[in-house]
Amino acid sequence: MKALTLSYRDLLHIAGVDETLGNIIELMAKGTCRLTIVDKSLHLKGSISAINVLRYLIRHGSSYINSLLNVSAKELMEPIVTLDYRADVKELIEKIVNSNSGHIVLIDSDSVVRGVITEECIIRRLTIDSKYHLKSSEIASVPVVKLSPFTPLINACNEITYNNIKRVILETPGQIYGYISVLDIIRFIRGIIKEGKAFSTTVDDVLSENITNVVWKRSMIYVSGNSDILEVISMMKGGREDIILVTLDGNYGVITERDIVIRIPKIIGIEKFIDKIKIE
To answer: Is the distance from CB of 160 to CB of 259 less than 8 angstroms?
Structure first.
């Protein structure tokens, strides 16, 4: 099976090298945490992550948002993991595991982008016909990065950028409030732009907002730490959640899409993991 058969080959995850920060925010708000940056001939130039957008905005906290919207994508680009588009799925999973990256760009010998692989591409192809014989507790991330929802947004941004994670759990005493994601923050900023407030709002103004002004309370799905990881995969394939809470002897951990595609192959072996991937 070729890696290319699993990839996205549309334009959802791709942006031009001449895009502005304003356009990057608009594209990410549609639902992608990382954009592959190409020139007009689709030659790969780099990538931009939503986390790196946050880092840039934090560095320019005193600036009005509008003054930053025409910044070139070139100023935000970072390296990206690539793989020959002719590679098979085994090479792809090895690349994902060894690079610890859930975003791989498939290119040809001229660095032309042929496809993009994300964690979602893998998960939607995983079979749920039989158990994995792997407890959810073995995959869960512990300890969990968490905050009170009644704190400034900058606290969430700092946790996301420092830990290089997409989400932070929000917790009040004795209760899970939900979570805030990097895309929640991107969409909040996009909302300010759409409302015409970018001329009078600085980045610091945004980052001083209470988290509860950015996200509503969210119910989250729990699974037992003793449950087979198949249960979590089934939920993620169904599109219900991309982060699951795992109960662990009076505490809890979380499982994300990245945990599925990186940790499971490390534990059960790449060959057995590949056996769970099917073409639908």
So the answer is: no
Cβ–Cβ under 8 Å, residues 3 and 117: yes
Please name the amino acid found at residue 243: I
Mean pLDDT of 197-221: 95
Question: What distance, in Å, lies between the first and last C-alpha atoms of the chain?
Answer: 12
Tens digits of residue pLDDT in 238-279 = 766 789 999 998 899 999 999 999 999 999 999 999 999 886
Q: What order do you get walking across the sheet with 175-181 strand by strand?
A: 146-147, 167-172, 175-181
When pLDDT is averaged across residues 84-90 and rounded to a whole number, the result is 96
Provide the token pair at 70: 């025409």
Q: Of 132, 171, 161, whose CA–CA distance to 254 is shortest?
A: 171
pTM, rounded to two decimals: 0.94
Looking at residue 149, its pLDDT comes to: 97
pLDDT at 8 over 90: no
Q: What DSSP letter does each residue of the chain carry, written as one string?
A: -BGGGGSB-SSTTEEETT-BHHHHHHHHTTT-SEEEEE-TT-BEEEEEEHHHHHHHHHHTTTSBGGGGTT-BGGGT-B--EEEETT-BHHHHHHHHHHHT-SEEEEE-TT-BEEEEEEHHHHHTTB--SS----BGGGT-BSSPPEE-TTSBHHHHHHHHHHHT-SEEEEEETTEEEEEEEHHHHHHHHHHHHHTT-TTT-BHHHHHTSBGGGT-------EEETTSBHHHHHHHHHTTS-SEEEEEETTEEEEEEHHHHHHHHHHHH-HHHHHHTB---
